[in-house]
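My current task is to audit a protein record that another person submitted. Alongside the sequence sits a line of tokens, each denoting a local backbone shape. Where you disagree with what is written, explain briefly why. This is what I was given:
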Amino acid sequence: MNTWRPLGFLLSLRNGIAPLGSAKAWLDACGIVPANGLVVQECPAGLVRVRVADGRMAFEAPPLTRYEAVAEKDLDRAAKALDISRADILDSSWLVNGPRWLGVRLASAEAVLGLRPDPGKLNDLEIDVIGPHAAGSETQFEVRAFFGGEAVWEEPVTGSLNAGFAQWLTDTGIAPPNYVASQGQVLGRRGSIHVNVEDGAIWVGGNVRSCIAGTIEI
């Protein structure tokens, strides 16, 4: 039986910073939103702008450091790891912006939700998968993110991969400049990710809330 393990704080561990979570924690503790609504954070990717407006937070996506077609041998590996046919993959791209995301596009949100990756074949791959919901749905795309080891780990909501998807899908005309994606449904932690492309900048965000509060005495 395949195993999935949700890891809600994964972004901060793997990328060095969770932009929206860190900004929310700072604002809750002592921060003040400037008049222009922008907070700037420093992280391994450089200076990241976070916008606070209308009860929602969004970060400006850093540039992709690898953005190119995926070799056929890697696509074959990805298909086997996802336990699907190679023909099920409609398109793909490397979407590296810290994590080494291999982006895969499937025909539908239902196909994405039905994935049951094989942990023995995922190995070092970090695969993000997207598929469209039917017209008229509350969200336009369904997203899932997997990486391997002894088990398959799946992230509930992932800013880095949604930033990569936004670049790829808007560049190829698959997605409009403004859309909403959902992620985490299979884990029982469904989140809505709002994407806006404005003047060449990609903003990724949504409603952010604090789940844990406390103090540490040092």
Confidence is low (pLDDT under 50) at residues 1-17. The longest strand covers residues 46-53. Helices lie at 10-15, 19-29, 72-82, 109-113, 119-122, 159-171. The CA atoms of residues 8 and 83 lie 25 Å apart.
